[in-house]
Write a structure and sequence with these properties.
The complex is a heterotrimer. Chain A is mainly α. Chain A has helices at about 20-40, 60-70, 70-100, 110-120, 125-135, 145-170, 175-180, 185-215, 220, 230-240, 245-270. Chain A contains 11 helices and no strands. The chains are: A mainly alpha, B alpha+beta, C mainly alpha.
Amino acid sequence: MRSRPNAKASPRAGGTAGWPLTLGAVAGLLFLHVPLAFILLYAFSTEEKSFVFPPPGLTLKWFAVVWERDDIWRAMWLSVRVASISTLMALILGTLAAMALYRSRFFGKEVVSLLILLPIALPGIVTGISLRSAFNLLDMPFSYWTIVLGHATFCIVVVYNNVVARLRRSSPALIEASMDLGANSFQTFRHVVLPNVATALLAGGMLAFALSFDEIIVTTFTAGQQTTLPIWMLTELVRPRQRPVTNVVAVFVVAITFLPILGAYYLTRDTHESGGSGK
Amino acid sequence: MTDRAEPPTAVRFARVSRHYGEVRAADDLSFEIADGEFFSLLGPSGSGKTTCLRLIAGFEQPTAGEIFVHGRAMAGVPPYERDVNTVFQDYALFPHMTVADNVAYGPMIKGVPREERMREAAAMLEMVALGGLGGRKPSQLSGGQRQRVALARALINRPKVLLLDEPLGALDLKLREQMQVELKAIQRRVGITFVYVTHDQGEALSMSDRIAVFDRGRIEQIGTATDIYEHPASAFVAGFVGVSNLVAAEVAAAITGASATFSIRPEKIRIERPEAAVPEGHCAVGGRIESVLYLGANTRYAIALDHGGELTVLDQNREEQTGLADRRVGAPVKLVWNRRHIQTIGARPPAP
Amino acid sequence: MSAAAPAIGMPSAWRRVSTALYLRPGLVLFLLLTPPMLWLGIVYLGSLFALLAQSFFYIDGFTGQVVREVTLATYAELFTAANIGIIWRTAGMAASVTIACAIIAFPIAYYMARYATMRTKALFYLAVMLPLWSSYLVRVYAWKLILAKEGIITWLAEHLGFAWLLDGLLSIDVIGGPSLSASYIGTFLVFVYIWIPYMILPIEAALERVPRSLVEASADLGAKPRATFRKVILPLAIPGVAAGSIFTFSLTLGDYIIPGIIGNSRPFIGMAVLQHQGTAGNIPMAAAFAVVPIVIMGIYLTVAKRLGAFDAL
């Protein structure tokens, strides 16, 4: 990548914060993250019927229980497949949209950008019930693909945002330079455009994967009788059976989604491209 | 190719226009650039010079007219099939490749085996005095070094025409002057036609075989540096290239007897005592010193003329001053210059 | 051309296609845009229209079948007292959650934007971003076990001697309940917790854009720090707050998971939608209910746009 000083240089010269502000900020961070620690703690609890604190004893046996549970593995496998295919589709569609929109000006461009943003701008339940209504109108049975349809739709914007930000930052003359030196459009894409957006693509893909893997609001409407990992968890939350088992699964979900997000952050941290807009 | 005594034409514009809606970036341009020539397109920003360059490179298509490169019509020919390479204003080096890979990009696309193209790239880097820096990334180079890489990358394909879009614009003054000399030397060595876009008249004058002066999408004048400087064809050229005094028709009538606007370069005017005799073939006009500006090698005077109007005079600070000795503000003077330095200006009015 | 330089890898057919495309940028744009627009147009817009269409159908009370005739009957049914109550409850919750988020998020964002060093800022940024992107359900779940009657909060209250406060809170009429996890207080807490990253980031971005020189200029002109904050920093942060509030408001409006897990099971809009489409099989009613948040968000966005929220997104 071209050398770019960290885009958001901290205005460090401003002295130090007063203690109430620092306290407020640190307390806010703790508020965000301490609850997750309890998930971890209760994954080792010997008490399976309630969330009594402190846990009466600690044990590792729930990890073994989870390992043996077929329903969890099936749900996990479905979630992984859905997230992979949705990510792949979002990568293709989001990249195409980004390449079309980042420099061109045409009538209706605003509408097109709005259309890309809409699936995350409207509440998830709207997307969910809309898809559900459409499946109902078309008499479409629920399947693996009905889930993917919904997930890919709201993942497009994640990839789009990342790629468009990267494209906007790279010099438009790069493409011209490549063609000037004898490369046709496809060679230019292969040798110049793709390497330049590669990390943005990877970051967008990882975020899309995390988003899809974790998604519950839309999925409830599009899954029918199928069980993704979040749906499995939701069922357990509403009608708990072995509570620590749910905790073990929750710990895994956190790990599986945190890792790609961390990766995406490090791939794009110079610009904080991936921040801001969420689900 | 047919045998001809004349040097073949490298680039020919035949009534080429490029319009963006109402904006005429290039307006009905016809000119030729000879093979091996160092040809500059000079003009203020927005005058159409860069558009011309992009039309030659193929990044844009003319709205009307035809461009020929070495006799071949360029309509519908994409940039990658033109025997033309470009040095971009911001260099446009590929940030994800090393310097050597950047330079070897052209041969790589052509399918030259890696070893061979790396050898070629090393040789090119040697030529632009960057030997040994091939392994670096562009971000690790200074502005001047990036500029050289861009040059090496564009020259490795041995194009018939090299296009340079204000290549020295981002460099500081010292480096710019040094690169001017080097560019000229490289051009002589490789013998390729250089088409050079700049808004810096000094750069254009010092490097070019010929210069085309652009204004508002049109060419005001094409000629050698001396032509352009000594015989500007229009008020715009006179004003844009160097400093010039423009003498309005009414005042001109009183000085030369002919009622036609003319331009006279400040350094051609001598400051004499008011009672000095006027030599044969010279003009003279009386006035009074308005201001004196000491510039080191020169001194610049503003003289209010008796007939109205003002002239700028540039006088070298030689060891012994000639002419008038008393040069304080307010002193009466007589300005004298040879009639052959008068350049009568054509019909086109200056830019509004 | 020398024998060493044949165009390998790319047969001339590719070159011809490339050239054809190069000379027709409009066609390229069309080809690039077609797949994503087809997808979004058919899958997403199509679904939204399906939603709208369904909301104008009605369900036959006898057969339980959806009758595909255009009618306003479903909408008429939507505006019964019970449903209006649901809508008010949801909107009220969304508003209070938004305000609470803004209050808690501001100091964090302010600290990040103005005082944090490069390293702490990266840490904060990551700490805010991780929960924004992931583990929604897990984070809701975490509160279920924290707020449970036998959970940590109760334990802390007993051991630190503020059980009376907890009991007092829970005995308040509407917002209280048998335990935190079965009260509006709990629902509210979790909503705030889940959506707060969406508020921090836009405020931080807005504050980041306040040039330091502006603050210095204000101080230079004799303003005390408090006055500078009120007169310079706060007004410039408003677009960020507005942008964040779009998220917190919209997300609360449409959520059905949180009030379903934590709360007193009195329904919110999202739960009503879920219930109507699921157990009741009344998709027209679910669709009509889902139109409500769209309309509310439409109004909200119009106001937010006036406040400059879109510049801070």
